[in-house]
Write a structure and sequence with these properties.
Length: 304
């Protein structure tokens, strides 16, 4: 089955789970009316040419690969695992990293296991939902281990005596701690990503060009939201001869604007976007070299 609607982009998203909420929040911050009910499986965004298909994340790669959806948002962990299924490398083009739902795929072992390094996993059993990624990684290190495939509650495997170690996603580390386990080594860090059907980039027909344009419009909005999320707008008053020293203290500052202050010769107002968060220590240092009336504001959107 091929995508029917030629002028709308069809995006597969996770129906529920960690990534789902953050993903819908991002789409809303991009200005989209994206508030489907919990039971909806298909949702037509009313103010953007986008249709959302709410599915299980395991299904997203194949829906995108087969062209039923034009693009999909999913965890990089799922993408890599599914992509290795019978392949050397994942095959879907990566359109964008979203920096959401960040976590690490790690080897973990019971604290009292005596296992301190990955080489000690040789000839052990490893419980995981990611046998493809895990065995590929171990093979690279020359370690032979048996993969015990589990879909959930992987942390229970050592206690149940079905594995000596696990390879699982770790976010806060609370689940490992609650199960008396510790991280042995990180395999890779994962985040939410957007993957696309290759036809979108390759096919020159107007239908696919239109869809690709819609995708790029959405991509620009996503960039704007992500950039704004990490940036701050700062306004302050400063002695004119200290502007350079002040700029040196501001992290990731770009093209500050300085405005003379009427009635205050030798003093300027300085406005700038900082690409990182501003810590109290920086504000104190700024005050120390003469800055005053400092305001730090969040930024909602950015577009170059
Ligand atoms: P935590 O206790 O915060 O370290 O979370 C660990 C548990 O949540 C494990 O059961 C993981 O499989 C699961 N988990 C952590 N991060 C993610 C993620 N980004 N996506 C899906 N499951 C996750």
């Amino acid at each position: 089955m091929k995508t029917q609607n030629k002028s709308r982009l069809r995006l597969a998203v996770q129906k529920s789970g960690r990534l789902s909420q953050e993903c819908f929040e991002l789409l809303r911050q991009c200005g989209l009316n994206a508030t489907p009910s919990k039971t909806a499986l298909f949702y037509r965004v009313s103010n953007f040419p986008l249709d959302l298909l709410m599915v299980r994340d395991d299904d997203i790669p194949s829906l995108v690969r087969e062209g039923i959806c034009d693009a999909g948002i999913l965890g990089e962990d799922k993408y890599r695992e599914e992509g290795l299924n019978g392949r050397e490398e994942p095959d879907l083009p990566l359109f964008k990293r979203l920096g959401l739902a960040t976590c690490r795929l790690c080897f973990a072992v019971p604290k009292e296991s005596g296992i301190e390094e990955v080489s000690q996993l040789n000839q052990t059993r490893i419980a995981t939902s990611f046998p493809g990624i895990t065995s590929k990684y171990l093979k690279g290190l020359g370690v032979e281990a048996e993969m015990v495939k589990m879909e959930g509650s992987v942390e229970l495997a050592p206690r149940l005596g079905i594995a000596e170690a696990i390879s699982d996603l770790v976010s806060t580390g609370a689940t490992l701690e609650a199960n008396g386990m510790k991280v042995l080594q990180e395999i890779f860090s994962s985040e939410a990503i957007v993957v696309i059907n290759p036809t979108l980039q390759e096919n020159e027909s107007s239908t696919y060009q239109e869809k690709f344009e819609i995708l790029n419009r959405l991509g620009t909005r996503i960039d704007g939201v992500l950039k704004a999320r990490d940036s701050k707008y700062i306004m302050l008053h400063a002695p004119a001869d200290k502007v350079q020293n002040i700029c040196d203290l501001l992290p990731g500052i770009e093209s500050p604007t300085t405005i003379p202050l009427p009635g205050k010769p030798g003093t300027v107002a300085l406005h700038a976007v900082c690409k990182e968060n501003l810590f109290w220590e920086t504000m104190e240092a700024l005050k120390g070299i003469g800055a005053s009336a400092m305001l730090v504001l969040p930024i909602e959107k950015m577009m170059d």
